[in-house]
Design brief:
It is built from 8 helices and 4 strands, in the order H-H-E-H-H-E-E-H-H-E-H-H. Residues about 255-270 have low confidence and may be disordered. It has one domain. Strands 1-2 form a two-stranded antiparallel sheet. The chain is elongated and about 60 Å long. The protein is mainly α. This is MHYT domain-containing protein. Keywords: Membrane, Transmembrane, Transmembrane helix. It holds the Pfam family MHYT.
């Protein structure tokens, strides 16, 4: 059994992983809070979709591969398969999105939160081990069943707690605290799953390990992180702008935002019925002049 390192770059990897998990959870919880306040189903789904990318893509997937940058097998090259890496991203986002759709509509209930937690936890587990399928070494990977089960329990519990926070927590302080707890749970699930793994080397495969190098992953991770942040920010800004200047039914507000609705007012004015050409407005009746009574 080969020696395995999980912290090749020291404390940098767990700190970076935790920060990504925290930021993804924080923005995701803010989005779910906006979803609870949305007045239409379409806007609620938009906010839940943004939250799914933030939590699934940022708090879970980016955290996973930031931590994986510290993974190393000194006796073997370590490479990543791009296609499986992308598959794991899709699995994470879809799993979180489905769970949020379950708890994001209708009345809040404990069975719904648990069902969403089991579904999302299973998706997170699938993301982790499908991502590990994309890791290539000179040999084969094996997993300790008891630790795999422990990681599964942590994933389900973490997902259930995340969904409960998503439908319950409000306020910056509470959201920050909830995001901190979620980040600890996500990182705990990852490193528990990594502790379950062992590598059995095959010296005949050392020259047959294909894929991209771990450090090369920094480039796509950085690009995906930037794209995710920009995309979430733009989507949130667009949704917030629409909600600010329209009511829940999508019609422009009046009063406080009247200045911002000039285009709508002009459009309404142009559609107002006009008098037919050639008709005249009646002239006002002349007012008789009163006599002053003097001769």
């Amino acid at each position: 059994m080969a020696e395995i390192h999980h912290f090749t770059y020291g404390i940098f990897n767990p700190i970076a992983a935790y920060l990504l998990a925290f930021l993804g959870s924080f923005f995701g919880l803010l989005c779910t809070g906006r979803a609870r306040d949305a007045r239409t189903r379409g806007r609620r789904n938009r906010w839940l979709g943004i939250a799914a990318f933030s939590i699934g893509g940022g708090a879970i997937w980016l955290m996973h591969f930031a931590a994986m940058l510290g993974f190393d097998v000194p006796a073997s090259p370590v490479r990543f398969d791009v296609s499986m890496t992308v598959v794991s991203l899709v699995v994470a986002v879809v799993a979180v999105g489905l769970g949020l759709l379950i708890v994001g509509h209708g009345r809040r209930s404990f069975p719904k939160v648990v069902a969403a937690g089991v579904l999302t936890g299973g998706g997170v587990l699938a993301m982790h081990y499908s991502g590990m399928e994309g890791v290539h070494v000179a040999g084969s990977m094996h997993y300790n069943l008891s630790l795999v089960i422990a990681s599964a329990i942590i994933a389900v519990v973490a997902a259930t707690v995340a969904h409960w926070f998503a439908v319950s927590v409000r306020g910056w302080v509470r959201v920050s605290g909830a995001a901190s707890i979620m980040a600890v749970a996500v990182c705990g699930m990852h490193y528990t799953g990594m502790a379950a793994m062992s590598v059995h080397l095959d010296n005949n495969q050392i020259d047959q390990v294909h894929g991209i190098r771990p450090l090369t992953m920094i480039v796509p991770i950085t690009l995906i992180t930037a794209a995710t942040i920009v995309g979430v920010a733009l989507s949130a800004l667009q949704a917030m702008t629409e909600e600010e200047f329209t009511d829940g039914a999508g019609t422009p507000k009046r009063g406080i935002h009247a200045e911002s609705s000039n285009a709508w007012s002009l459009k309404q004015a142009s559609l107002a019925p006009t008098a037919p050409t050639g008709t005249r407005r009646p002239s006002p009746r002349p007012v008789p002049v009163r006599s002053t009574g003097t001769n």
